[in-house]
C-alpha cells in the first residue's frame, strides 16, 4: 500500500503536465475519471462565454455574424487541426458527430461509384452503426458489420466505405490507423475514422496516413462542454469531389448572396450545413486554448503511464475480483475498462465515494484518464475506492 502511495506521490511530483490541472474548474474532493464521456471545464470558458453574451451578442448584436461569428467554424477547426495531424484548411467544426458521420458516409459513397457495401465496426458506439444503417437504406447499399480485427475477411471490390473507430468506446482498445487505412485503400475503398475517443489522446496523423475522411467529438478529451459541436476532416485532395448530402446554406460558396441555386464552398466549409451554434462553438474555442504549447507526445506518454499505473493498482488491490479488458500493452487509449458482473451497481457506489467513472452494458466499469487534469494519486484513490467497495460487496 505504502509503496503505491509513494510511487503515486513521486510520479505526480515529476509530472511535467501537472501544472495544467489549475486550468480546470474541478472539485478537489472528487476524482473525475469520465473525461472520455464529458471533459472537465477549463476555467477560461466561463469568462469567455460571459464576454460573448455581454459583448458580442449584447453590444455588437447582429453585427457579430459578419465580424467574427460566421467564420468561427473554420477558425476553431484550425485549432483542432494540429491535434489530429491535419494541415490548414481541412478541418471544420459543425453539427454533431452523428450528423458528420452521415455527411461523411454519403460523401464517401458518392466517391466510390459501382460499389455496394458499407463496412462498419461491429462493436462501434451505437450512433455510428445506426447512421450507417440508415445511409445503407437510403442509398440502397448493403451494411456489413465486422470486428475491426476481421476487416480482411470482408474488404473487396464491393466495398464502398469503411467506418472505423480509432479507440473502442467500451474496451478502450486502440486500433492501428495506418494499417487499417492501407488495407481499405488496397481494396479501392474509402475510410472514415471516428476519432471521438482518440482526439486529444495521442498524436494522430490524418494527412500523413492519407485518411479519406474523419469525424470526432469535442466534448470528451477536448473539453468543449456538453453538446459542443463536432469536427469533420476533409483533406484538400478530396475537397472538390466531396459532395455531402446536407447542402444547407452554411456550406454555400456565398451564403449571404442567398441565391436559389446551391454552389458548394470550394474548401472545407462545404462540410457545413446550417447556422453554427455560436455559444457552444466559442466555448469550445476557449477550451482549446489550454492545448497551446502542449506537446501531444507528452500527453500520450502521461496517458499511458497513468492508465498503466491504474491497472497496476487495480491488479494489486482488486485483481482477484475484476478483469481488466483494456489491452495492457500500448494498444489502448486513455481509458481503462474493467469487467465485473455487478458493474452496474458498483459505479454508483464509487460515485457516492466521490470517484466518478461510468458503466457500459452489460458488465463494464470505465475509467477515463485525462492527462491534462488527472494525476497518479487520483488513479490510486480510484483503485482503492474500487477495492473498498468490492470488499464490502455481497
Ligand atoms: C465513438 C463515438 N461516436 C459518436 C459519439 C456521439 O455522437 P454525438 O455527439 O452525435 O452524440 C460518441 C459518444 O457519444 C462516441 O463515443
Ligand atoms: N454524448 C453523451 C451524452 O450526450 C450523454 C452521455 C454520454 C455521452 C457520451 O459521449 C457517451 C460516450 N460516447 C461513450 O463512450 O459512451
Automatic annotation (TrEMBL):
EC number: 3.7.1.3
Alphabetized InterPro entries for the sequence: Kynureninase, PyrdxlP-dep_Trfase, PyrdxlP-dep_Trfase_major, PyrdxlP-dep_Trfase_small
Pfam family of the protein (one): KYNU_C
Gene3D superfamilies cross-referenced by the UniProt entry: Aspartate Aminotransferase, domain 1, Type I PLP-dependent aspartate aminotransferase-like (Major domain)
Cited SUPFAM superfamilies: PLP-dependent transferases (SSF53383)
Annotated positions of the N6-(pyridoxal phosphate)lysine modification: 220
Record field: catalytic activity: L-kynurenine + H2O = anthranilate + L-alanine + H(+); 3-hydroxy-L-kynurenine + H2O = 3-hydroxyanthranilate + L-alanine + H(+)
Keyword annotations of the record: Hydrolase, Pyridine nucleotide biosynthesis, Pyridoxal phosphate
Chain sites annotated for binding pyridoxal 5'-phosphate: 97-98, 125-128, 194, 197, 219, 249, 275
Record flagged with keyword S-adenosyl-L-methionine: no
One GO molecular-function entry: kynureninase activity
Cofactor(s) needed by this chain: pyridoxal 5'-phosphate
This protein's pathway: Amino-acid degradation; L-kynurenine degradation; L-alanine and anthranilate from L-kynurenine: step 1/1; Cofactor biosynthesis; NAD(+) biosynthesis; quinolinate from L-kynurenine: step 2/3
Biological role stated in the UniProt entry: Catalyzes the cleavage of L-kynurenine (L-Kyn) and L-3-hydroxykynurenine (L-3OHKyn) into anthranilic acid (AA) and 3-hydroxyanthranilic acid (3-OHAA), respectively.
Family label: Belongs to the kynureninase family.
Assembly and interaction partners: Homodimer.
Record NCBIfam families: kynureninase (TIGR01814)
HAMAP family: Kynureninase
The protein, known as: Kynureninase
Lineage: Bacteria, Bacillati, Actinomycetota, Actinomycetes, Streptosporangiales
Gene transcribed to yield this protein: kynU
Amino acid at each position: 500500500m505504502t509503496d503505491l502511495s509513494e510511487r503515486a506521490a513521486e510520479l505526480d511530483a515529476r509530472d511535467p503536465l501537472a501544472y495544467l490541472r489549475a486550468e480546470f474548474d474541478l472539485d478537489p474532493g472528487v476524482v473525475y475519471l469520465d473525461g472520455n464521456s464529458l471533459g472537465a471545464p477549463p476555467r477560461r470558458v466561463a469568462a469567455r462565454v460571459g464576454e460573448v453574451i455581454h459583448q458580442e451578442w449584447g453590444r455588437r448584436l447582429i453585427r457579430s455574424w459578419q465580424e467574427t461569428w460566421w467564420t468561427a467554424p473554420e477558425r476553431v477547426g484550425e485549432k483542432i487541426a494540429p491535434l489530429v495531424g491535419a494541415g490548414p484548411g481541412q478541418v471544420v467544426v459543425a453539427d454533431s458527430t452523428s450528423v458528420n458521420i452521415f455527411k461523411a458516409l454519403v460523401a464517401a459513397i458518392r466517391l466510390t461509384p459501382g460499389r455496394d457495401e458499407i463496412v462498419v465496426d461491429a462493436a462501434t458506439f451505437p450512433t455510428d452503426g445506426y447512421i450507417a444503417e440508415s445511409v445503407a437504406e437510403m442509398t440502397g447499399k448493403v451494411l456489413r458489420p465486422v470486428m475491426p480485427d476481421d476487416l480482411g475477411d470482408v474488404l473487396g471490390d464491393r466495398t464502398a466505405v469503411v467506418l472505423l473507430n480509432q479507440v473502442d468506446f467500451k474496451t478502450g482498445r486502440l486500433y492501428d490507423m495506418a494499417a487499417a487505412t492501407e488495407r481499405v485503400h488496397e481494396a479501392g475503398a474509402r475510410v472514415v475514422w471516428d476519432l471521438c475517443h482518440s482526439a486529444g489522446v495521442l498524436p494522430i496523423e490524418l494527412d500523413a496516413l492519407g485518411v479519406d475522411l474523419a469525424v470526432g467529438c469535442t466534448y470528451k478529451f477536448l473539453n468543449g462542454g456538453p453538446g459542443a459541436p463536432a469536427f469533420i476532416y476533409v483533406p484538400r485532395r478530396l475537397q472538390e469531389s466531396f459532395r455531402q448530402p446536407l447542402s444547407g446554406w452554411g456550406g454555400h460558396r456565398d451564403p449571404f448572396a442567398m441565391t436559389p441555386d446551391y454552389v458548394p464552398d470550394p474548401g472545407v466549409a462545404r462540410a457545413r450545413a446550417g447556422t453554427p451554434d455560436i455559444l457552444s462553438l466559442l466555448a469550445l474555442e476557449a477550451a482549446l486554448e489550454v492545448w497551446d504549447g502542449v506537446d501531444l507526445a507528452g500527453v500520450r506518454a502521461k496517458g499511458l503511464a497513468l492508465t498503466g499505473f491504474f491497472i497496476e493498482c487495480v491488479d494489486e488491490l482488486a485483481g482477484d475480483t475484476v478483469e481488466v479488458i483494456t489491452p495492457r500493452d500500448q494498444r489502448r487509449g486513455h481509458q481503462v475498462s474493467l469487467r465485473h458482473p455487478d458493474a452496474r451497481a458498483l459505479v454508483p457506489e464509487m460515485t457516492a465515494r466521490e470517484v466518478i467513472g461510468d458503466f457500459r452494458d452489460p458488465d463494464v466499469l470505465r475509467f477515463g484518464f485525462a492527462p491534462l487534469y488527472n494525476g497518479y494519486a487520483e488513479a490510486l484513490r480510484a483503485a482503492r475506492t474500487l477495492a473498498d467497495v468490492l470488499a464490502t460487496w455481497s
